[in-house]
């Protein structure tokens, strides 16, 4: 957990040079040949053998006229180390990617000598880790094993730790997309403002990432022009003014923690945006709600770490997509094994969806009503690979 700079490496591929940098020249050449497929009568084999100067002219033409889709054929897998969680969320909100990220459930928080994690965060994390273990074992020790209890305790204690906590991930995307993202990050660095200290930390992390990508020879100026003035999709404005709608497509706005949004982003068929709240609020794990003293203590400890933007800080979240993709989300999140906060939020949205469809006499009503009787294992079109035999989990009333 040391406060080392972001490090980026490239996993083995056909364009990885012996020094670990990207062979951009050869990648551009392949894309230039692919660009000729649409009109070459003899096909790609003929293009492979064409004179290099012809390929180079096609590269110049496609790079300069905005026809960049051919550069999506070049896929790169990055090994991102020491990347702040919030920066990982920025990347994961752009849909053209595959990611494998270190899980918070399996990783205890340990503060190193030069760590971004403060002493207060580590202290409070360990304090609440023990409280959660005791509470969970007391209430669910008859159905949950000690290893599962430990994971759930870590998951909930993590709410007190900064959203800038470093994580590790393998992130795969295309040559075009990583350059587009780099240009949107440059735009954010130059113009976007959310909250002063939040911005300062995030922009510093973005600059580090861009420096690493430049050193790896991945960035190409002509793919970074951003002629359409696109921007990072994660950050929204005036989300509180949006009106909920539910039909064949839907859009809704709600409050959730940073952690909840990070979970939701895994559903790449759905679109998400976030906005900071005017006044700080914090997620309260439901297992604490039966003890007002613990709730008061939890909120007091959250105030101690409020300046580091803990993962339990509430934000305004906008979610939109197609009905069938929301149902796919339900098939993942309405489960006793899912993070509780996103399970509860998904259940709440499902019931809102049902009520709206009832009012509008939608033909989707019959379908959605089949999904309002409990966890995904009660759905008529879902086969659970392993029965948890946990009543509170199946009825979606668990508190952990």
Written description of the protein model:
- The structure is a single chain.
- With 400 residues, the protein is α+β, with helices and mostly antiparallel strands.
- 42% of the residues lie in helices and 13% in strands.
- The protein is built from 14 helices and eight strands.
- The chain has helices at residues 24-34, 44-48, 52-65, 85-92, 119-140, 146-157, 175-191, 196-215, 258-264, 292-304, 323-333, 340-359, 365-369, 391-394, and strands at residues 7-10, 75-84, 98-101, 166-174, 245-246, 249-257, 271-276, 314-322.
- The strands form two sheets. A four-stranded antiparallel sheet has the order 1-2-4-3. The protein has a four-stranded antiparallel sheet with strand order 5-6-8-7.
- A hairpin with a 2-residue loop joins strand 5 (245-246) and strand 6.
- Helix 5 (119-140) packs across helix 6 (146-157).
N-C termini distance? 26 Å
Main pleated sheet: 4 strands, antiparallel
Tell me the structural class: alpha+beta
CATH top-level class of the largest domain: Alpha Beta
Helix content: 40-55%
Q: How many discrete domains? A: 2
Quick recap:
The model has no long low-confidence stretch (mean pLDDT 94). Strands 1-2-4-3 form a 4-stranded antiparallel beta sheet. A 4-stranded antiparallel beta sheet has the order 5-6-8-7. The chain is 42% helix and 13% strand.
Question: What key attributes describe this structure?
Answer:
400 residues; alpha+beta; Gyrase A, domain 2; four-stranded antiparallel sheet
Sequence-ordered SSE layout with sheet pairings:
Layout: E1 7-10, H1 24-34, H2 44-48, H3 52-65, E2 75-84, H4 85-92, E3 98-101, H5 119-140, H6 146-157, E4 166-174, H7 175-191, H8 196-215, E5 245-246, E6 249-257, H9 258-264, E7 271-276, H10 292-304, E8 314-322, H11 323-333, H12 340-359, H13 365-369, H14 391-394
Antiparallel strand pairs: 1-2, 2-4, 3-4, 5-6, 6-8, 7-8
Helix pairs in contact: 1-3, 5-6, 7-8
């Amino acid at each position: 957990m040391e406060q080392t700079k972001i490090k980026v490496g490239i996993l083995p591929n056909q364009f990885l040079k012996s020094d670990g940098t990207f062979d951009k020249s050869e990648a551009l050449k392949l894309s230039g040949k692919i660009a000729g497929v649409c009109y070459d009568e003899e096909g790609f084999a003929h293009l492979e053998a064409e004179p290099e100067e012809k390929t180079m002219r096609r590269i110049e033409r496609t790079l300069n006229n905005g026809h960049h889709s051919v550069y999506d054929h070049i896929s790169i897998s990055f090994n991102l180390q020491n990347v702040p969680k919030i920066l990982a969320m920025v990347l994961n909100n752009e849909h053209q990617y595959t990611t494998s990220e270190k899980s918070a459930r399996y990783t205890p928080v340990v503060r190193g000598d030069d760590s971004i994690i403060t002493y207060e965060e580590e202290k409070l994390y360990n304090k609440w880790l023990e409280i959660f273990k005791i509470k969970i074992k007391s209430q669910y020790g008859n159905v949950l094993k000690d290893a599962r209890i430990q994971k759930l305790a870590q998951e909930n204690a993590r709410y007190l730790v900064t959203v800038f906590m470093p994580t590790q991930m393998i992130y795969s995307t295309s040559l075009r997309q990583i350059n587009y993202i780099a240009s949107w990050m440059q735009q954010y660095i130059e113009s976007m403002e959310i909250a002063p200290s939040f911005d300062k930390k995030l922009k510093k992390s973005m600059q580090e990432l861009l420096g690493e990508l430049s050193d790896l020879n991945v960035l190409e100026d002509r793919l970074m022009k951003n002629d359409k003035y696109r921007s990072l999709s994660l950050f929204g404005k005036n989300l509180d003014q949006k009106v909920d709608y539910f039909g064949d497509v839907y859009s809704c706005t709600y409050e959730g923690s940073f952690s909840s949004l990070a979970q939701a982003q895994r559903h790449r068929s759905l679109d998400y945006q976030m906005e900071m709240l005017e006044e700080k609020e914090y997620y309260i794990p439901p297992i604490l709600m039966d003890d007002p003293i613990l709730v008061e203590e939890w909120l007091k400890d959250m105030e101690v770490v409020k300046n580091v933007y803990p993962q339990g800080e509430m934000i305004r979240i906008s979610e939109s997509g197609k009905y069938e993709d929301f149902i796919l989300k339900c098939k993942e999140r309405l489960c006793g094994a899912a993070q509780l906060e996103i399970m509860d939020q998904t259940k709440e949205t499902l019931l809102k969806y049902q009520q709206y469809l009832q009012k509008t006499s939608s033909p989707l009503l019959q379908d959605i009503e089949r999904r309002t009787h409990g966890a995904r294992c009660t759905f008529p079109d879902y086969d659970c690979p392993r029965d948890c035999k946990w009543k509170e989990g199946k009825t979606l009333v668990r508190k952990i």
